[in-house]
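Review box. Two proteins, two foldings.
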Amino acid sequence: MPIPSLLSNETTIFVLILLVPLAGAGLALVNSGLGRCRSAAHVMLASLCVVGVSALVYVAVGFSWQGVTGGTGHSILVAGTTWNWIATEPLFLRGIRLDLSTESLAVLLQMFSVGLAATIPLGAGSDRWRLGAACASSALLAGWTYPLFAHWVWGGGWLSQLGANCGLGRGLVDGGGASTIQAVGGLTALSITWILGPRRGKFSSDGIPAAIPGHNAILVLSGCFSAWIGWIALNSAGALLFAGVTTQRLVLITMNTTLSAVASALTAAIVTRLRFGRPDASLTANGWIGGLVVSSAAASFLKPAAAILIGALGGAVIFFVIDLLEARLAIDDPGGAVSVHAVGGILSLMAVCISDVQESGQFLAQIAGVSTLLGFVLPVTYGLNWLLNRFYPQRVHEEGERQGMDLYELGAGAYPEFVVHSEEFSQRWS
């Protein structure tokens, strides 16, 4: 006898959305563990703060620019074709029915998603990014960059219209936020690393990078498990709300999300074993998160074998990009945010092209999304943070970096019973 369904479609989505914050909690643990021990509490508190600031700003003004498909917005006419470029919803969610309607569920998911996007750059700015500056940067992300791009993808904007207006497949397809959350967050992280510069002692006078290992692998690996649950919920809720799939695909989404993460992590472990003689826990954890990211856009459309393939590719590519950014481009990204989220998000968008979404022109629609991320989102987020840095310097004073962010900005360390400075380190700063 079949078991009757106890949850409606809307209730199922609501329950899934409630699990999405676990993805942010996982990233916070990963970022904290990959940084220095004297900044561990600072990273965790910053994670709470940027999530809070992002939620407030998004509810106040962000959703007004994003809106939902079918809502009010400004359009422009190009060669006889109408393109929607920004929403015009009321501020502070006025007029939105906060019930189990599709519109209210989309708002709730976006409030959590923008907090996740704001958490990503904390890994890149670890050990040197001021708490107040991180909150201000998150306000810019939640108030403008994220909602504008999310409108283009999920709110009926021009990237989603590429199918109807130009015959490019279904328009840009992104079920779980590979572009809106991951790539936007990762490109913001890249902007932050450029503005802050590397940590002191990271590069020698000859530009040779020094190894600064994460202080707590247990936090990092624990964060991977938490992120796993949150990502399954995020991919599932996003696919139901934005990709037009039914609840019958939830098993496939869960399986593909897991297989991609597993394949990516194992690939990273094998690659680091071949490179260093033993598997590296931190890079394997980056591979796990990268696999989750790579699954985001097309988890509801990929066959399991394709999910394994794209996950394995992501694990290898992310490792080499981390090495390239550090050794060749002198980019100091302690949490691997740029490689994992920006590069992983772009790979995820292109994975749609090997999924069940095989309509004519879909490849060009995905390329248009990637081009917009690199040609518009990156310059805009860098420009906004550059202006912020002119008025409110984002990097902590040299004394704060020497003491550690915990003592300098919070007045207490995360590990008060342990010595977190060595004589060797103190002498390097004298």
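Next protein.
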Amino acid sequence: MRKTNAFNHLIATWLGVTLLSLQSLVHAETDTLERIEWKKAPIRLELAVGQEQRIEFPASVKVGVPASVQGLLRTQSVNGTVYLLAHAPFGSNRLMVREFDSGRIYLFDVTAAEDGGVGHPIQIYVAGTSKTDKDSVTVSNDAGQVQPGYIQLTRFAAQQLYAPSRLVRDRPSIVRVPVARDPVDLIHGGTVQAAPLVAWRSNGLYVTAVKLTNRTNQAQILDPRDLRGTWLTASFQHHRLLPNGDEADTTAVYLISARPFEVSR
């Protein structure tokens, strides 16, 4: 009887080790980085519904999503990395991804299926170039320390709100400051509700992340010219809000100002 129990324990232990090894193998395969060279031909990409796909680019980019899949595909662009998540299957749709600095445009023919691809992280590269951040050095203070400029402040705020926790990093030169979270009259027309979420200060500049919610049953296009206040820059996380009640009826705008948010609006 003791031999049987010992044997059963040995088998259970072996199965546990085997399962752990298989899980580690699957995890390693999923994290394998696939490098794809951009050759001006659309890149075909199949998404698995409910599984996030990560795509790295040589520089920060903006993603253009066709209206036909805006309710089916979530896109987030953070510091040169794009995160795609399909909520439901859909046929081939073309995404246009544009680099902020160079203006280079990448094309993707994207589909989504319940049994889609494994979802390896993808790195897009252009032959003869390297991934550099042209805005990494913008302002230096009297002590010679590099201070973040408009682009870095906006990226930092977007990362704090949207990036996975493993990618969020604090920066000593960017300090969080208090901001009232009460709704404010920020956008002309009254169709979009605005409420500050969080604010930071760095070297005399302020960046405030403001939550925007569609109040109506119609889609709304966000235009920086409709903003009230005195802002140095305004960057929308998404430029279109779906009707109220849709999961895409909310986004954020990042406002940079020379004075605190309460004084600038």
